[in-house]
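Input structure tokens:
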């Protein structure tokens, strides 16, 4: 997580020369809002921190749905985030069935970005929900370990 925190210090805007000598374009980088992540059972702490670190460093909030087999890893990381001073409501863990929680995370318009790692067998609604929202998706190679980022 410290690596992502260090990168957060280097998020700058840009000033780009315009097509006219007296004009400038200003690029402002800002948080996009609520991000969500759905993680698999294997390497739970590593998968969670790889998804939450960049989102938190960019100033976004995170809603995490861990695998049903490893909810305690996610809850322990949420407790550590709390102890580290992450404000309440910034890093959130939701446990429950993949269909119910995953369906909400993919269909809720408040969720601006989604990262999903797992196979289509683990969570079939992903493709349809992504298509319904007309968002870009980046499935993993062979779609056996797909990663969706909206």
């Amino acid at each position: 997580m410290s690596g992502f925190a260090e990168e957060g210090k280097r998020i700058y805007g840009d000033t780009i020369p315009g097509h006219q000598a007296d004009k400038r374009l200003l690029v402002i980088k800002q948080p996009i809002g609520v991000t969500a992540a759905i993680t698999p059972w294997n390497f739970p702490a590593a998968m969670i921190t790889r998804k939450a670190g960049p989102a938190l460093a960019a100033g976004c909030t995170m809603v995490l749905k861990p695998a049903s087999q490893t909810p305690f890893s996610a809850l322990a990381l949420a407790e550590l985030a709390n102890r580290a001073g992450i404000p309440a409501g910034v890093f959130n863990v939701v446990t429950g069935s993949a269909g119910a929680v995953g369906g909400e995370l993919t269909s809720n318009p408040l969720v601006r970005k989604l990262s999903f790692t797992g196979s289509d067998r683990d969570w079939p609604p992903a493709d349809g929900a992504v298509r319904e929202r007309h968002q870009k998706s980046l499935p993993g190679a062979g779609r056996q370990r797909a990663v969706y980022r909206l």
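The chain has five helices and seven strands. Confidence is low (pLDDT under 50) at residues 136-142.
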